[in-house]
């Protein structure tokens, strides 16, 4: 059974919503708190407002947008900016998000890092102008990522829509000071010719589960660097340069028997790379417990052979 990216996103990214630590369990108290909050002028139950706060324990929201982005609409408008979550991937691993709000506010950050930059924006002459109000939290990133974001540490940024994206996954992009942000949920069609790190391939858009542990390569070449990942470190204390049997992943592209995949780590990091061979099957949500058992068996084998 083939699944779409949108379905898998709803499963994988459910854990990426950020809330404040305070939580209440009493339903009656929750209802009272909600009623009190919605009466305050500076708070809103509208998730497209930067002042969103539906319950007392709600913090800044990274909630998934409904992805109403229209790829055929070429005009840059507020509705278009609000229609999706804009993504930039740093160091081929970490996804960061740029979100726009109805009240002319934008926020930039990530699941683990929180809000790193915020400010206001306006649209002029088919361009979006970002006025930065606070960049202090950029220092919370590791130095290598902070270096990637130094271009944002300025008073003003300018962005334009580009509809000739050469990205292997996303159909178009928002280019801000020459850096590309991609609209979440707007993917290229299966069968489309693409390039991955300059290598030609065919676009895929399905979710797979590995039926055999596979080495994880940076390029479609047995001599290329193998990629170490932390997906299994917390539960099994291993750092393999492989993707274990039972692991679910996005299949993004194919070149003969090489397959370009993406899977998510424990801290929201994204791992992109190649596996060789056809030892995988279509993802089936009803078999999640079986998949976990496969992963456990493989992980224990690796630990025993250390």
Characterize the structure shown.
The protein is an alpha+beta fold and 306 residues long. It contains 6 helices and 16 strands. The strands form 3 sheets. Strands 1-2-3-4-5-6-7-8 form an 8-stranded antiparallel beta barrel. The longest helix is centred in the last third of the chain and has 17 residues. The chain is globular and about 60 Å long. It starts with a helix and ends with a helix.
Output the number of helix runs: 6
Global Rg: 21 Å
Strand order of the largest sheet: 1-2-3-4-5-6-7-8
Low-confidence stretches: 1-26
DSSP helix fraction: 10-25%
Largest sheet geometry: 8 strands, antiparallel, barrel
**Topology pattern, helix = H, strand = E:** HHHEEEEEHEEEEEEHEEEEEH
What overall geometry do the principal axes of the alpha carbons give? globular
Number of E-state strands: 16
Topology overview:
Elements: H1 5-12, H2 27-38, H3 78-82, E1 86-90, E2 94-100, E3 105-110, E4 114-124, E5 127-134, H4 143-148, E6 156-162, E7 173-176, E8 179-183, E9 193-196, E10 199-210, E11 214-215, H5 233-236, E12 242-243, E13 248-255, E14 258-264, E15 270-276, E16 280-282, H6 288-304
Antiparallel strand pairs: 1-2, 1-8, 2-3, 3-4, 4-5, 5-6, 6-7, 7-8, 9-10, 10-13, 10-16, 11-12, 13-14, 14-15
Short key terms for the protein model shown above:
eight-stranded antiparallel β-barrel, 306 residues, 32% strand, 17% helix, alpha+beta, 16 strands, 6 helices
In short:
The strands form three sheets. This protein has an eight-stranded antiparallel barrel with strand order 1-2-3-4-5-6-7-8. Strands 9, 10, 13, 14, 15 and 16 form a six-stranded antiparallel sheet that branches. A two-stranded antiparallel sheet has the order 11-12.
